[in-house]
Q: What sequence folds into this?
């Protein structure tokens, strides 16, 4: 496990995670072959305005999709997307079947994820389901959250001022 300082004051760091921009719920490190399973985020210095944490469990997204457009799950398990990390990328579906009948997630909705046409057709329902299932909360200094990076998506709202936290990723 290796900690990463996530600060809006970080100089020379690439990626939206090091800015004050909003981050749509996503899988951390979706552009590598095996994204880390555990993600721990600890708030060291909250910002004065915004920066709320966003979490959404994959099962809640799937339940909404089953109600609205069940065939979307077929597309999400079959259509291969491109997920980038720098110059490297992986070609994987958004959902992978698990032995227990549930799904592991690999998703990002930013410039590091590219979707094939058949997935773009179900993307509006997927994004709506993610937005509706997302919980939002503010972390105070010393508070944290721990998620299964394969089963839940995380993000944050945009913010004003500086903010500092520590992210720990583990296989």
A:
């Amino acid at each position: 496990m290796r900690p990463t300082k996530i600060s809006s004051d970080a100089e020379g760091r690439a990626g939206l995670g090091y800015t004050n921009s909003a981050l749509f719920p996503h899988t951390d490190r979706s552009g590598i072959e095996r994204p880390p399973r555990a993600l721990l985020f600890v708030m060291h210095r909250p910002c004065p305005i915004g920066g709320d944490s966003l979490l959404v469990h994959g099962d809640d997204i799937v339940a909404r999709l089953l109600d609205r457009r069940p065939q979307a799950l077929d597309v999400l398990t079959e259509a291969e997307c491109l997920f980038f990390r720098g110059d490297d990328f992986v070609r994987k579906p958004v959902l992978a079947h698990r032995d227990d009948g549930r799904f592991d997630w690999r998703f990002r909705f930013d410039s590091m994820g590219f979707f094939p046409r058949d997935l773009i057709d179900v993307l509006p329902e997927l994004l709506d389901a993610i937005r509706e299932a997302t919980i939002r909360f503010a972390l105070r200094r010393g508070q944290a959250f721990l998620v299964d990076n394969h089963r839940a998506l995380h993000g944050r709202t945009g913010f004003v001022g500086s903010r500092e936290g520590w992210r720990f990723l583990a296989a």
